Every structure is written in C-alpha cells, then in structure tokens.
Amino acid sequence: MKKLAVYPGTFDPITNGHIDIIVRASKLFDRIIVSVGENPQKKPLFTHSERMGLVENVVETLALDNVDVGYFSGLLARYADEIGATAIIRGLRAVSDFEYEFQMALANRKIYPDAETVFLMPSEPFVYLSSSMVKIIAQNSGDVSIFVPKPVEIAFHKKFGGKK
Ligand code: COA
Asked: Is 42 a catalytic residue?
C-alpha cells in the first residue's frame, strides 16, 4: 500500500525550514501533501490564497515528483482521514515545541487513530527559525534572503511597500 503523509501548517509564510522538512519527508513516504490550514489562534499576515500560492510556487521549484499541495479547513485529523493519509508530519525544532506538538498529536490520534504523527528535525541552521521571526525581520527592513525562498522574499517586498 502506498504511504501518504500530510505535512500541515499555517505557512505564514513558508520558510527554508519548512522546505528542509518537505525534502526529508519526501524521502520517507510515497507521497506528501503539503497542506495549508488555519490555526484559529493565529492572525496570518498573508491571506489563505497568498500562503497557498507561495507554497505551490515553492513546491513546484523543488521538482519533487511525490510532493503535492493541498488545503484544508476545520480539523486536521478529519482532513487526513478524508484523503487517506497514514502519517502527519510535523517539524520539531526545540524542546519548547514539544508540549504543544504532543497535545496536538494526541488530539489528532483520538479523532483519527489511523494516522501517526511523525516528527522530523530540521537541519541545525533552521532549528531557531520561525515564520514570526522572519516576518519581524522583513517588517523592519531586514534581509530575509537566507531564511526564505525567493518568491517569499518578493511577497514581503510587495506586502511592505517595497521595503525589504
Ligand atoms: N522551519 C521553520 N519554522 C517551523 C518549522 C520548520 N521546520 N517547523 C515549525 N515551524 C514554525 C512555523 O514557522 C510556525 O511559526 P510561527 O508560530 O512563528 O508562525 C510554528 O513553527 C508552527 O506553525 P505551523 O507549523 O504552521 O503550525 P501551527 O501551529 O500554526 O498549526 C495547523 C497549524 C494548521 C497544523 C493546526 O493549527 C491545525 O491542525 N489546525 C486545524 C485544527 C485542528 O485540527 N487542531 C488540532 C486538534 S485540536
């Protein structure tokens, strides 16, 4: 049976750290669906369609033939069930991620027991990276080129009126 995994996130915006996880996951599963969702606790800078467009653009440039892009609203576990995913990929950067990720993995397993949450560690340079950090740097005219792919850099330029 083909192993399908979902890699969900808010992706506000997608960063090089997310890309690192996508590439790692693509070597472990037959098919990965990078899925843009909503975290009800977050107020994203980029709209759903902007985030989705950026993820699509970036995934296309990766040219990995087993990686696709999707979106979902509502519960992640229900979505995973609907598409027949047997794994939910999450990046685990530091111990501080653990508590939240642990809770989410257990809640998802209660709702949809057939999917296992699989945690992958990013490469060291991305361990401290977060979308919030990148947004703050971009908002304050900092250089984000080492943290995000080119399309995201361009999107920041547009968002902040030509500022870096
Ligand atoms: N590289 C860089 N950053 C990374 C990363 C990596 N490898 N792995 C995680 N992060 C960062 C993200 O940039 C993000 O940073 P931010 O908080 O500054 O924005 C943070 O870690 C985690 O965000 P993300 O991975 O996008 O997940 P999330 O916590 O926003 O959750 C959903 C997003 C959509 C998966 C989750 O909210 C969800 O499942 N929602 C649906 C409702 C549901 O089913 N909830 C669970 C059951 S109650």
From this structure: yes
